[in-house]
Amino acid sequence: MHQQRKGGRGRFGPPGDAPLIRRAREGDPEAMDQLVHLHHRAVFNLAYRLAGNYDDAEDIVSEAFLRVFNALPSFRGDANFSTWLYRIVYNVFLDERKKQRVRAHGSLEEIVELEDSTVTRQVEDPDPGPAERVAEQDRAERIQRAVARLPERQRTLITLYHFQDCSYEEIAEILQMPIGTVKSGLNRARHALRLLLAGERELLEA
């Protein structure tokens, strides 16, 4: 099911990306501005979840789009544009981690529900009442603490698959690892997250 959601994207990404990419590669600044506008939210979300705080995420986003601007003329569409873009973001994050060992402590914008073998998005009530909003906030805070405590690689896998909606193939390309390693690593990350969330519940109930 997750893989099927990728079917609507061409190799350049969403349908509107292709003409903008062609124009930006030819040096059209307006096209580049539009690409930044279209992808800024997704890029910031990825950077924020990787870095764990707003300031570092802003720095990563700025550097990532600068690298995109410089590298775009060499982009030939061999990879999906968003995959190529996410890899640049991830590389910037790794470079920043080398400069300063940032501990992740940011909050998540989405709530996930842990089942026996999978992690799925929580379906939100379109009009939740006060009690539901309090419970939702509580779940968000518990997941925030748990995800922030995951090792960097596991946090990255969870973020790319469950929050950035990347396929196994795209994650393998972004992280430069075999698909089998992505799948097994993601399973271990989910297991670790379940254990951490179980610990959160025990602390809350103590």
Number of strands: 2
Quick check: average pLDDT? 77
Our measurement of the CA-to-CA distance between the termini, rounded to an integer number of angstroms, reads: 39 Å
CATH homologous superfamily title of the largest domain: RNA polymerase sigma factor, region 2, helix turn helix motif
Radius of gyration over all CA atoms, rounded: 18 Å
Gross geometry: globular
Total domain count: 2
Query: Strand share of the residues?
Result: under 5%
Please work out how many helical segments DSSP would assign.
8
Give a short synopsis of this structure.
The protein has 206 residues and is mostly helical.
Topology:
Blueprint (H helix, E strand, L loop, with lengths): L16 H9 L3 H23 L2 H18 L9 H19 L12 E3 L4 E3 L8 H20 L2 H12 L4 H8 L3 H27 L1
Antiparallel strand pairs: 1-2
Name some characteristics of this structure.
206 residues; mainly alpha; Rna Polymerase Sigma Factor, Chain: A; Arc Repressor Mutant, subunit A; two-stranded antiparallel sheet; 8 helices; disordered N terminus
